[in-house]
Amino acid sequence: VIIGSGIGGIGTFEKQHKILCEKGPGRVSPFFVPMMISNISAGEIAIKIGAKGPNGVITTACASSTHALGIALKLLQRGDAKIIISGGTEAAISPMALAGFCKMRALSTQNDHPRSAS
Questions:
Q1: Overall pTM > 0.90
Q2: Do 10 and 94 form a contact (C-beta atoms < 8 A)?
Q3: Residue ranges of the Beta-ketoacyl synthase-like N-terminal domain (predicted)?
């Protein structure tokens, strides 16, 4: 299982940071790190389907999914695996992520016509 993820669990990071600031470190979830790290997605897929063999997440920003597919192809070509599940996942829809993308001017301003925004 080779998955691409541009940034990982930024929403989880934001929620846990708020808890840290408001309630202190003792209230941060013990699952914070496993919920935040991007490689958990490939691990969960592998566990769910019982996959053995190469497993990882590629985090190379917007190219992550394409990069994951390329690595999956190389694993197949080299004979390191007979079957690979590959693709991408992302959910960077949070106040901090949106603010960052807005400041970079990386989001469409054509909000009245979503079909023509991309």
A1: no
A2: yes
A3: 1-114
Quick check: 109 and 23 in contact, CB under 8 A? no
> Residue 72 in contact with residue 4, Cβ under 8 Å?
no
**Cα dist. 24→21, 31, 36, 72, 73 in Å?**
6, 16, 19, 42, 46
As a whole number of angstroms, the distance between CA 84 and CA 51 comes to 9
- Cα-only R_g, the chain: 17
Query: What domains, with CATH codes, occur in the chain?
Result: 2-116 (3.40.47.10)
Angle of the 10-23 helix axis to the 95-103 helix axis, nearest 10: 120
Question: Over the stretch 16-68, which tens digit does the pLDDT of each residue have?
Answer: 999 999 999 999 999 999 888 888 899 999 999 999 999 999 999 889 999 99
Neighbours of 12 (CB within 10 A): 19
What single letter denotes the amino acid at residue 3?
I
